[in-house]
Design a protein that fits this description.
- It comes from Bremerella cremea.
- With 484 residues, the chain is α+β, with helices and mostly antiparallel strands.
- The protein has 3 domains: 161 residues, PAS domain (Beta-Lactamase), CATH 3.30.450; 117 residues, Helix Hairpins (Orthogonal Bundle), CATH 1.10.287; 163 residues, Heat Shock Protein 90 (2-Layer Sandwich).
- Helix content is 57%, strand content 17%.
- The chain is built from 8 helices and 11 strands.
- The strands form 3 sheets. A 5-stranded mixed beta sheet has the order 6-8-9-11-10. It has a 4-stranded antiparallel beta sheet with strand order 1-4-3-2.
- A hairpin with a 2-residue loop joins strand 3 and strand 4.
- Helix 4 packs across helix 6, helix 4 crosses helix 8 and helix 7 runs antiparallel to helix 8.
- The chain is rod-shaped and about 185 Å long.
- It starts with a helix and ends with a strand.
Amino acid sequence: MKLTAKIVSIFLLGIVMLTALFGYLTVQSEYQQFKRIKEQNAASLGKEFRETLVVAWKSQGHQGAIRLVRDFANRHQQMLIRWVTTEENQPTSQADIPSKELALATPETVATITTEDSDGNEQYLIYYPIDIESSRAGYVEFKVPLNDVAEYTRLTTYRTTAIIIGMLACGLMIITLGIRMVGRRLDKLVEKTKRISQGDFSEPVEIKGDDEISELGAALNQMSDTLSQQQQELEAASSARISAMEQLRHVDRLKTVGRLASGMAHELGTPLNVVSGRAGLIASNRLSEDEVRDSALVIKSEADRMATIIRQLLDFARRRPPQQSVLDIGDVVSTAINLLKPMAHQRDVELTTTDCEPMITAVDPAQIQQVVTNLIVNAIHASSPGDQIRVSLFKQEATPPTDTKAPLREYCCICVADQGTGIADDAMPHLFDPFFTTKDVGEGTGLGLSVSYGIIEDHHGWIDVESQVGEGSRFTVYLPAQEA
C-alpha cells in the first residue's frame, strides 16, 4: 500500500511539474511570438509610408508629418499610431521609453517597451525611427494593446490548472484502486511471509484474481506446504538420528563394561577372600567376643567396598537421557579413573592424574564419563606393561579449528597422554570414522572414538590428537568453560 502511494505520488509530481512547465513555456513562447509579429508589422508599415512621411516633413514640417500619420492611422486601426518628434517644444515629443534606448532604434531594430495605461491595462509600444538627411526627425509610435495576450495567458493558466487538478484526481483514484487491488493483496503476502519466517506453515494465503500477484500467492502456498513437509521429514530424520546415536553410545558403553568386568573380577577377589575367611573364623566359635566384633566390622568394610565398585559399574552401564548441568568436570574424570584403575592394574599400567583448580562447565556427566573412559581404555590397550598413562586437566584460551575467525575464549581441557605404540600417519584422517579401528580382530569395534567425537561436538567442543609412532599419543578434549 505504501509502495503504491509512493510510486503514484512520484509519477504525479513529475507529470504535474512537466505540465506546469509546458504551460509556462507555451505562454512565454506565444507572447514572444506575438511581439515579434507586431514588431515586424510595425517595421513593414513604417517602411511603407516612410518616403511619403519624409516628403511631408520636408514640405510641411512637423504638422505635415502629424497629419500624414493620423491619416495613415485611420487606414490601419488594428494599432494606435502617432508621431513622436525629437523637438522638445512640440506636444507630441514625449515618449514612454528612455531616450538612450530610443536613440539606438534603427529601421531594422525598432525600440520597444511594455507599459500600462491609466486603466492598468498592459500595452506594447513600438518606435520606428524616421531619419531625414542623416538626422533623426522623429519616430512613428505603434501602440498595441495586450488585452488579447493577457486573456490568452489566463485561459492557458486555467486550462493548465484544470489539467493538473484532473491529474491529481486520477492519481487519487489510482492510489485508491492500487490500495484495493495491489496494496491489500501484497499485505496478505507479507503477512504470510512473516509467518513462514517464524516457522508457521498453516493457513494458506487467499489471493483472488488471475494475475501475477495471485500466482505469487499460489506459489507461496505451495512453498509453505513443501517446507512443512520437509520440516516433518527433517524432524523425523533428526529423531531417528538421535535415537541411533543414543543406541550406538549405549552399545559402546556396554562394550566398555565388558572390558571392565575382567578387571573388576580381580578387584573383587581380594575382598571376597577376606569376607570368606572372617566368616569362617566366626563360624568356628573359636574367637572371643571382641574378635568376633572386629571380624564383623572387617566383613562390613569389605562388603561396602565391593558394593561401591559394583554400583560404579552399574551406574556407568545404565542408559540415561541426555541432561546437561553445570558442574566441575574434575569429579567426572575422578569417577572414570577410579572405575578404570582395576583394568590398568591388571595390565600393569600406571594410571596417574594431577590436582587442578575447579573447572566449571555445562555437560552431561554420564556422556563425558563415557568419553573419558573410552580415551583411557584406548590408552591402556595401546600401552605396554610398565608404561604410564597421565590424565591432566587445565584451562586454555583457544578458537575452534572449524572457525579460525572466532574470538578467543576459555576452554576446559581434559588431556589423556600415553606412552604406547602411537598412531600411523595414514590412520590419522580416519581416526573418528565409525567402525574404523587399528586394533586386532575381536579387540575393538571402531565405535569408541566416533561416539566420543559426536558427544563432544554436541557439547560445542572438539577433540585434538597428537601422536607419533613408537612414542605415544595425546588426546585433548576441549569443552567451553562456564562462570562458576
